[in-house]
Amino acid sequence: MPIGTKNYYNHFKLQAGKEKVIFSDHINVHTIELEKFANSLEEVDNSLEKWSYFLKHGENLEDAHLPSQLATPEIKDAIKELKMFTKDEIERERYESRRKALMDHNSLLADHYETGLEKGFQKGEQSGFQKTVANALYMGLDIEAIATLTGLGLDTIKEMKKAHFKPS
After folding, report:
1. Residue 81 CA: distances (Å) to CA of 24, 92, 143
2. Would you place residue 116 in the very low, low, confident or very high pLDDT band (cuts 50, 70, 90)?
3. What is the pLDDT of residues 119-166, one digit of tens each?
4. Domain limits of the chain?
5. CB 133 within 8 Å of CB 146
6. Run of H or E residues at 121
């Protein structure tokens, strides 16, 4: 929606109506209307004009033959990124495919890490229960008391007792 000024760049501040009291110096709105930007390359002078020119004509610029007015490192990088996204469909699909494969690989690594942590915790928990049951049996606690203490079933404790206290 065009703003009612002739300028391509506008800076607005919040102010009270007739008194024109500024509400805050910290709240501003900046707009750039590229359809109103009419500077030629020779007229481009400051950073705002350089970026406005780039935004309006970037698809026609080549990073290898960039005019001196636009030859900043930031604009060179922006042109490279723009060219990457405007390459033909096959190149873009290759780029997206490589990017997706890398993200999938990173996700898979994170999943394996989480699974490894869970298995390690379960193994450690199981080992802890085995030690607790073995110590409780050694101390002479009966199976029901050990079941109450650990939350394990009676059959599980009986199996553990058989494994730890084999008849000689």
Report:
1. 37, 12, 70
2. low
3. 655 665 666 777 777 888 888 888 888 888 777 788 887 887 787 666
4. 1-36, 90-164
5. yes
6. helix 89-138
